[in-house]
Design brief:
Helices cover 39% and strands 13% of the residues. The chain has 2 domains: 45 residues, no CATH class; 237 residues, Glycoside hydrolase/deacetylase (TIM Barrel, Alpha-Beta Barrel), CATH 3.20.20. It is built from 9 helices and 10 strands.
């Protein structure tokens, strides 16, 4: 009689314990499911059981997994060879950075868009002597938005329109120095002797040059019907990505024409920077989709450039 009662008691206890354990388990997995959706920081807060996998001590570095929606954020190393990677440097904010705007680099030019080869060479000599380091647009944006370190006296060399001289003259000279640049190509202009072919674009991208978009056919992105502008912004990105096998994240407005709608479209398409033809040193306060540049015109060699950059102490 007593034995039977003891059995029943033990059985009840075991059952109660089992139920308790089961209930706890299902609650915590529910928490996991609920917290998986919103943000990584929320899930870290709800799950005290996994401190070792949660974010380390809070630092100034923003989490890399929370960029703006639609903006792909590839590995920093995916954009350039190791020689162009500065991620191991200490972070020092470079508030104002010159973005130079070049067009043709060729002797015997007929208008102000042409810079002679010797003038271009004198720019590179000046950079070497003054400790100025060319970086890409992508690196500049990463510096401002993801705390990516930059060397002292950074500069961005940008080349508009995808002329053939980019491949025959500029590319070899930059390779010699081990420096990258950003080339804005018109994705529909890849046939003929005066432009960069798809193969040239691919070769330059593979060597660490950044290829950016300059639309499909150099249209006015401000005055064109919205559907046309949108198509040009999206299609040029797609086509250049096809040619180069690299993400295209930078765009340059043809003839510097854009408005608020253009900016919205460019953002939505997944670009992370856009440059204008407004004169000045670039800073994030201008907005990362309306950055100023320093125009280079015919006859401006290294000495002229040095005085243009003098306000920055370059
Ligand atoms: Zn142009």
């Amino acid at each position: 009689m007593k034995k039977g009662l003891a059995y029943i008691l033990i059985l009840t206890l075991v059952a109660a314990l089992g139920f308790l354990l089961f209930a706890r388990k299902s609650i915590s997995s529910e928490k996991l499911i609920n917290s998986a959706s919103p943000s990584p920081s929320a899930s870290a807060a709800v799950l005290p059981s996994a401190p070792e996998t949660a974010a380390p001590a809070p630092t100034d570095t923003p989490a890399p997994e929370t960029p703006e929606p639609n903006s792909p954020s590839p590995e920093p190393t995916a954009l350039a060879p190791a020689s162009h990677d500065y991620s191991s440097l200490p972070y020092v904010l470079r508030e104002k950075v010159p973005i130079l705007m070049y067009h043709q680099v060729m002797d015997g030019g007929t208008n102000s868009l042409y810079l002679s080869v010797s003038d271009f060479k004198s720019h590179l000599e000046y950079f070497s002597n003054a400790g100025i380091t060319p970086i890409t647009m992508r690196q500049l944006i990463m510096h401002w938005t993801e705390n990516y370190p930059l060397p002292e006296k950074p500069i961005v060399l940008t080349f508009d329109d995808g002329y053939r001289s980019m491949y025959t003259t500029v590319f070899p000279l930059l390779k010699e120095k081990g420096w990258p640049a950003t080339f804005y190509a018109v994705s529909g202009w890849t046939d003929g002797d005066s432009v960069l072919t798809k193969e040239m674009l691919a070769e330059m991208a593979a060597a660490g040059m950044e290829i950016g978009s300059h639309s499909v056919s150099h249209v006015d992105l401000e005055k064109s019907p919205a559907a046309v502008s949108k198509e040009q912004i999206i299609e040029s990105k797609k086509q250049l990505e096809e040619y180069t096998g690299k993400p295209i994240l930078s765009i340059c407005y043809p003839s510097g024409r854009y408005n608020e709608n253009t900016i919205a479209m460019v953002k939505e398409a997944g670009y992370v920077s856009a440059v204008t033809t407004k004169y000045g040193f670039a800073s994030l306060s201008q907005g990362q989709f309306s950055l100023f540049r320093v125009r280079i015109s015919q006859g401006q060699g290294g000495v002229a450039l040095k005085s243009m950059l003098a306000p920055l102490g370059y």
